[in-house]
Design brief:
It is an enzyme of class 2 (transferase). The chain has 383 residues and is of the alpha+beta class. The chain contains 8 helices and 7 strands; from the N terminus they run ααααβααββαββαββ. Bound molecules: adenosine-5'-diphosphate (ADP) and magnesium ion.
Length: 383
Amino acid sequence: MSIHPLPPPKEPTGLGRLPVARWFLLVAILAGLIFAAGVATVMTMTAKTAELNPRPEVAAQVDRLIVALVVVFVLLLGCGAGLVVIVRYAVLKPIDQLTDQVRAVAAGDFDRDLHVDRPAELAELSSHIDSMRGRILSAWRVANDQAEELRRSNGELEQFAYVASHDLQEPLRKVASFTQMLEQRYGSQLDERAKQYIAYAVDGAKRMQLLINDLLDFSRVGRVTGERTVTEPGAALDRALDNLSATIEDTGATVTRDELPAVMGNHLQLTQLFQNLIENAVKFRSEEPPRVHIGVRRDGDMWEFSCSDNGIGVEPKYADRIFLIFQRLHARDVYPGTGIGLALCRKIVEYHGGQLWLDGEDTEPGGHGATFRWTLPAAGDGR
Ligand SMILES: Nc1ncnc2c1ncn2[C@@H]1O[C@H](COP(=O)(O)OP(=O)(O)O)[C@@H](O)[C@H]1O
Ligand SMILES: [Mg+2]
């Protein structure tokens, strides 16, 4: 298992650039020099005193002084050597040991225990770092397991949606065609009410067909036809407008656009995205003829697209709800639809690594119109 590769350690600055061991060496050399200078000074002073031919009691005192000084110097030398050993084995070595252990963990060996048993301060530090490692590791493992479980159940759900909608098509076709045949063949023998019931059944079957087709599209995103390459969204938009040409002509809608830059995307899915958004913009129109504009602006590594219209708009409190599958704000007889369109759009955009949302602020004066925004990864154009 591995988390992301770790960045290289930060370079120390100023006096921190010198490792601690070097500082100790510097101080030790300085102390050694002072010590040697002290010994030399004392020796010259005693030699000079001896040249003055002092009285015997004074000479005896000087001899005792020399002995005392020798003892002090030897003790000092012993202390210095002891300090070197202590620093080396009680500080520098454990620091090295801990650094090695931390480096191994940082390099990806997350199961490695961190432990040094002396000195007390480093032992405490290592035990804190180790418990931090343990806690992060177990939280990460839980998150990993959950992500894995989520991926699995998502895959299962997609598979289920696909199989269910695919297998439902056949019996549905049967229901629709036999009800229609019933009407054609026995229409003359049926009264008005029976004909009305048949019309309801045919209408129900058609609606179910629409739902199933939309569900199939929804479950296909990311499962099939998912390849992403450098794509011209302009071409996907042309295709979508082509598919919507009858609706656009009937409603007298005008669709304008900025110059659309290349993105990393899937042509078919981007066509579905434009088609659903423009279809909504035209369907949820106000009294005026629909005007739709596809805009674009740069946002870091992404392009932020927008689709704005002059239609009936969406109340901000529904800004999240409309993206849920089957969620609609209007009765079916006023505005027909399955409520899958925006859920499909969001799935497509998220599959591309972007985000899709309703812009609550950018509506036309009087609260009319809706603007949807979404991001798509730029196609490495170096801008
Ligand atoms: N451009 C728009 N203007 C106003 N309302 C919209 C617009 N686009 C979507 N909506 C609202 O969001 C709901 C969900 O949209 P969608 O998922 O495409 O379903 P459908 O188009 O089948 O109703 C719509 O029923 C509508 O209430
Ligand atoms: Mg729709």
